[in-house]
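Fold sample X.
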Amino acid sequence: MTIFIASLVAAGIAAAAAIAVATPLTPRPGATVTTAHPDFTWRLPFAEDSVAIFIADKPDVTAEGKFYDQNFVDGADVFPGVGEWSPARPLYAGEYWWNVLSTDPSTHARFYSPPAEFTIPVALRLNRITAKRYSFPRRRLWVDVIAAANVKRPLLRARLLHGRRIVWKAAHRVDGNIIPGAYGFYWYAQRRVKQATRLRLIVSISSGGVVRTRSLVVRAP
């Protein structure tokens, strides 16, 4: 009888330990987050301390609950009583999972919370487009674009239209900047396009089916 009771007690302790993990609060599981610097918060079980927080781009974990190293994106060690953290580096658009490592100081047992999923959607902005004409040594138009993107390689396009006819177009992949950055195009005017001809400049930035477009009336150099 004593052995049986002891077994039940041991089983109860093991069951309690199995569920003694941090509870993710924000971003809540399945949330869509519109900032590149999410505020992560969690609640700890009684008498447990925080150890670290981890972010990964895949939900796969080891037997103890740790993300695999090749999927690690960001994270940090945190102080024992802390239940909040925000990444210093911005997170690009994508699907992520996060969990928290906590410990019981009395037993030194360590617990990983189950991965909680969140998504950052693609966000693109064309803040400003300007054009400057030059006539020497060759007629050319400099197009300056101020844009922001939370993806690594968005596609930037520029077109010049005379009425409905495209007189020039260009496109290239650029390094995405979550903080607005500057990009540029040069157009060397063809002889058939007379100086001061009224043209419409259309600039777009796109990624993952999301497109942002702005236009500007310019004069041929």
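Fold sample Y, listed below.
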Amino acid sequence: MLYGLFVKQKAMYLFFRPFLPYTLLMTKFLINELSVFFPCYNEEKNIKNTIDKTIPMLKKIAENWEIILVNDGSKDNTAKILEEIKKEYPKQIKIITHNPNRGYGAALKSGLYNSQYQWIAFTDADGQFDFTEVTKLIKKQQKTKADVVIGYYLARQVSKFAIITSKMWELVVFILFGLHVTDIDCGFKLINKKVVDIIPKLEAERGAFISSEFLIKSKKVGFKIVEVGVHHYPRLEGQATGRNIKVIIKSFSDLVRLWFKINFHRD
């Protein structure tokens, strides 16, 4: 009897064996659909290289994908370069232009609210992150069933002043809102679109506050947030603008305003 069962199973395997490669092809993608966006401000020397590294990875891991390039009022040749990039993939790449410059927060909002797919990833246009590590965020989400996966720096390639101010910021956010994450402003995140659709509309325009606002509102609604380490590399070209003193002051002002709104505003 057992021998007969074995013979039947072997016969079935031999029959279906030629079709196995086609079955594997159907399940080869790590994720079904993914929107990726890049906020850009004066990134003429970086953005082409960043996108050239991103597209092969998207083709490999996602069955359906799109790239959104948010040109936040760049004064260099970023706009021209973005148009050249779009010509290669006119269906998968779209460009959003702010004129004049509105700030990092506005660029993130444009990317988030114009993404069409269930999962949204974003990272910096300057190439300081390795986009291939998006697989770490996706696998972390699939393992934990989280709604938001945020990166944390394994070794942040910025000045000590930037690191100190970030930690001070994170302490203030923890005191005011009880939100504790390793690197609140890490620019590499994976987000379920339902989070963007459900949380109160984001308000920040300039400064680092936008990331904190998003996480604070996501936590308050009850979405699950997890973290995963990502590598960070030195910026090769251009200059970051997030540590401008005016930007820092505006971020703290927005943070206090949100605290009052959450604690004293009544619908």
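Sample Y note: The mean pLDDT is 86.
Also: The chain has one domain: 27-264.
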